[in-house]
Design brief:
alpha+beta, Endonuclease/exonuclease/phosphatase domain-containing protein, Endo/exonu/phosph_ase_sf, 4 helices, two-stranded antiparallel ribbon, Swc5/CFDP1/2, about 25% strand, Deoxyribonuclease I, Chain A
Length: about 220
């Protein structure tokens, strides 16, 4: 679903799009199933204008777990231990610069967990539903959490995010002109596509060779 905002105050001086994707990730009984899902999702995200603000919400069937040093796609209040699907989601967020907003705020455990299931004599609580927003808009997120006690019966909780969209135009991606000889990279293709990796490797070798030639010339001139 794509929502168009025509208020000039909404996002800088020009109208812009807010892209909303509602998703349900397969439980991941096979790696192929999960890989196919993220490949399809990557294709959809890649079709949006880089100036849009894209949100992805839903049941990802993935536990991101606690943040590892250096990671920028989740906050310090995630819950659980990262599982196989969590690694797939982490790779997707890292490649497309998304941030899991409902891991950024200190909440009680009941407002972190998003899914429950009774197993024999105990109840399992997991954090597997997320609201993803662009990393460069994360400071516009005011609050995010899960809510129990909804009227509709479900083993999932309602997850909400309060997002301030008064004037985030300065945080949008800015289109940059492509200079001749520069290779424009799609990070997802760089990860999954052999031809893209080969093109990147060749371009990098040419750049390093040019750098070495410049150094040799500078040395000869001294």
């Amino acid at each position: 679903m794509i929502v168009y905002a025509d208020d000039a105050d909404f996002i800088g001086r020009d109208p812009a799009l807010v892209d909303l994707i509602k998703t349900h990730t397969p439980s991941g009984r096979t790696l192929t199933e999960v890989d196919t899902f993220y490949a399809d999702l990557s294709t959809i995200v890649s079709t949006f204008n880089r100036r849009d603000i894209t949100f992805i919400t839903g049941d990802f069937n993935a536990k991101l777990g606690n943040r590892v040093t250096g990671e920028t796609f989740l906050g310090v209040h995630a819950r659980g231990r990262r599982n196989r699907n969590g690694h797939a989601l982490a790779a997707f967020c890292d490649a497309f610069q998304f941030f899991a907003a409902n891991t950024a705020f200190k909440k009680r455990a009941r407002n972190k967990t998003t899914w429950t299931q009774r197993r024999n004599e105990h109840i399992v609580y997991n954090h597997i539903d997320y609201v993803l927003c662009p990393q460069n808009c994360r400071r516009l997120c005011q609050d995010a959490q899960s809510w129990g006690g909804t009227l509709t019966a479900s083993d999932h909780k309602l997850v909400t995010e309060d997002f301030f969209l008064r004037n985030p135009g300065r945080l949008r991606y800015r289109a940059r002109p492509t200079r001749q000889g520069h290779l424009q990279l799609n990070r997802n293709q760089l990860i999954h596509d052999d031809d893209t990796r080969s093109a990147y490797s060749a371009a990098l070798k040419r750049h390093l060779q040019a750098t070495d030639d410049d150094d040799d010339t500078a040395t000869s001139d001294q």
